[in-house]
Amino acid sequence: MKPPHGNRPGGSSRPPSDRGPFRGPGGSSSRPSGGPGGGPRGPDSGPREYQKPRPHGAPKGGTRDGGPRPDGGFKPHPDHGQRNSGGGYRPREHEAPRAPADAPKGTVWLYGHHAIAAALANPARRLRRLLLTDEAEAAISKHLAPPWAISPERADRGRLDQLLGRDVVHQGAALLADPLAPPSLQSVLEKPGVIVVLDQVTDPRNVGAIMRSAAAFGAAAVITQDRNAPEETGGLAKAASGALETLPLLRAVNIARTIIALKAANVWCIGLDAAGKPLSGPAFADRRVALVLGAEGEGLRRLTKETCDEIAGLTIAGAVESLNVSAAASVALYELTRR
Questions:
Q1: CA–CA distance, 159 with 250 (Å, rounded to integer)
Q2: What is the CA radius of gyration of the chain?
Q3: Is 264 left (phi over 0), alpha (psi -120 to 50) or beta?
Q4: Cα separation of 303 and 306, whole Å?
Q5: Strand-pair partners of 285
Q6: For 57, left (φ over 0), alpha (ψ -120 to 50), or beta?
Q7: I want to staple 281 with a disulfide (CB 3.0 to 4.6 A). Which of 138, 191, 275, 338 is the partner?
Q8: Which residues make beta-bridge pairs with 310?
């Protein structure tokens, strides 16, 4: 498998639309990459999940400065708010965001001990109010010794339930803060590590869990789409368990154009899909990699798959047919560290 040519715009001598379709496990792409992967599956290839290949003949199953954006259409992300139901890696019905009653426009309520301790330790985070129970203050003090950049206000759990919602596991802690402004793509490219690209992953808890894994495996950044992706919410921050404060989260207007921009910067873009050959970390030992993951249930969109350099899958054995996108991201990121 040869590394991408340094002078190829978009990562290929041909435009992405010239790459032939991938026909399934063991197939090949019309793009002469010489390695595992390929383009999109056909319309009859079944659910687009991270799942093990179906046996033959088996039935189908279920920028902070606001300047120009030459890097694929990035812009700072605003305040977030969206949650959906849990479950397996399949489409979910969305609920309307529940906005905290006291949150001024352009702010976000963070909650949970790890998320708040990380935010208090982040000098780039603008803090507005900190509400804590006695127990929460003691717990957060174990993660980050006071004094903090903001003085806490005493609150009981009933007040926090009313403020954030009774279904929110706030652990007796709430922090009102401004959303973080992401860096430019160029500054991310100057850092080492895998770049994770999310193609319409909609569940904020999945995005947060992916950020936590990405930070654990030394990724450089996570990129989501400007639309059809969750913004910065307390749920996302809690699932990220502090990674939101240390790992850049960028938002792209167009994922396909972003992949082209990454390839122009000599980043090899791998789309994760069940139809691809097994992902092998050592095969990418000499390359900068971007890992592209698709939406819950639907997987990678056709144009996204066509724009990737290649498609790879995960080897899944046993009775489990598929993985949640955040679990698949963890496995793939671990594999890419085996260099």
A1: 33
A2: 21
A3: alpha
A4: 5
A5: none
A6: left
A7: 338
A8: 270
| Residue 47 shares a structural domain with residue 192 | yes
The first and second tokens of residue 293, run together, are 């993951």
Question: Splitting the chain (339 residues) into consecutive groups of 10 residues, what average pLDDT does each group show?
Answer: 44 37 33 40 41 45 41 41 35 41 80 97 96 96 95 94 91 96 90 95 95 97 89 93 95 94 97 92 94 91 95 85 91 92
Handedness of CA 249, 252, 255, 258 (dihedral sign): negative
3-state SS, 2-20, equals: CCCCCCCHHHCCCCHHHCC
Q: How far apart are CA 175 and CA 168, in angstroms?
A: 14
Beta sheet of 74-75, edge-to-edge order: 74-75, 249-252, 221-225, 195-199, 288-294, 267-278, 310-313
- From the number of C-beta atoms within 10 Å of its C-beta (0-12, 13-18, 19+), residue 315 rates as exposed
State in Å, rounded, how far the first CA of the chain is from the last one.
Answer: 15
pTM of the shown model: 0.70
Q: Crossing angle of helices 134-143/113-120, nearest 10°?
A: 60
How many Å apart are CA 84 and CA 105, to the nearest integer? 22
**The total number of structural domains that make up the chain:** 2
Minimal CA–CA distance to 293: which of 231, 222, 238?
Answer: 222
Which residues lie below 8 Å from residue 158, measured CB to CB, with a gap of 6+?
none
- Using a CB cutoff of 8 Å and minimum separation of 24, what contacts does 8-16 make? 8/263, 8/264, 9/260, 9/264, 10/260, 10/263, 10/264, 11/260, 11/263, 11/264, 11/268, 11/269, 11/309, 12/263, 12/309, 16/256, 16/260, 16/303, 16/306, 16/307
The identity of residue 326, as a single letter, is S
Question: What does the alpha-carbon distance between residue 134 and residue 126 come to, in Å, rounded to a whole number?
Answer: 23
Spacing of C-alpha 229 from chain mean position: 9
Instruction: Indicate the SS3 state at residue 264.
Output: helix
- Any idea what the CATH number is for the domain that residue 142 is in? 3.30.1330
Using a 10 angstrom Cβ sphere, with 0-12 exposed, 13-18 middle and 19 or more buried, the burial of residue 335 is: buried
Query: In terms of residue numbers, what domain contains 117?
Result: 107-177
